[in-house]
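Quality-control log, excerpt.
Job 1 of 2 completed; input and output follow.
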Amino acid sequence: MPLDAKKIAEIYQSKVAVGYDFSMGHFFPVYKKRAFEESSLKPGDRVLVFCCGTGADFGPILEKIGPQGLLVGVDFSGLMLAQAAKKVEQNRWENVELVEADVTDFAYTGGASFDIGVCTLGLSIIPDYRRAYANLLAHIKKSGELIIGDMQLATGWKSIFNPWTLLMAKKFGGTPEGHQNAQDLVQQMAKDLVEVKKREFFLGAYFYLVGTLR
């Protein structure tokens, strides 16, 4: 399946979205949490989460920023956000705002007022991923931090597992083009960020990157 915005929208307005936590909840949380632990997240920080989906990242982020911080989650899927809203209500998180919007043109009234920008498992399925990435950066304060996690195609001997990676990701909109976009984005982030830390897991199929804006 080529990277197509209409098809991606159809996927995340279907039963895939409803069962997302059940399908994906066993694979990535431990690695995402490592990224947040390796970041500079601290009490009182304002955090913007693009492609927040069902709010799977909210818990470990809120543990770091505390009740005095702010988390704004943005996603285009109302079905995904409905599940995120349930998490917010069940956990009685009072410092979370959910916004249904396209991350390529989302605009927060406070402008570049966030300390940390986060996007995990999102940019590789967005056709105009560079615009989404640039928009996330535009909302982060100078010397703020960026935390990105996504799928990629492994290199070297690990590339023998790439067909499995593509098969697993296809249901969620993953494509060879999207995984290549993620690798291209890593190169761009190396130019835009300093003190960059990149870690790889699942035999190179998943990575996270933490860095500070120049």
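Job 2 of 2 completed; input and output follow.
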Amino acid sequence: MQVKEREVFSILTGKISSTINRALLRAFAKEGLNITTEQWTVLACLWKRDKVTQRELCDLTRKDKPSMTRLIDNLERNKMVVRVSHATDRRVNLIHLTQFGASLHKKVTNVVQSVVDKSLTDVSAEEIVIARTVLNKIINNLDS
């Protein structure tokens, strides 16, 4: 790949990320959901498996510890999660969904799915498989 193609690729992936973030934020606001896309990624992890450590959330979301601390602080302030002391290691807090945080699961998931559906309009199943394969290769290249 030539330098110009690589620049276009990096610009395009940045634009896709920004466009998806804006679409999700608009959709959340339209539905009265006071969350950010970053908060959604944390909530989505907790909806799959509640009571995980901050370190586990960092690994699952690929966020650094200071960013995760800020996200958890904001989610806690908005009554979506609480920090619970680990039973055997007082240095570790488990992040636990509140009843309110758990209650958002269906509504938020439906909003996200509607944005995903819209974003994939006129994209074939074959194109999705190819895109997923290419993007996962890029992630693996950068992780190794």
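Post-run check on job 2. The radius of gyration is 18 Å.
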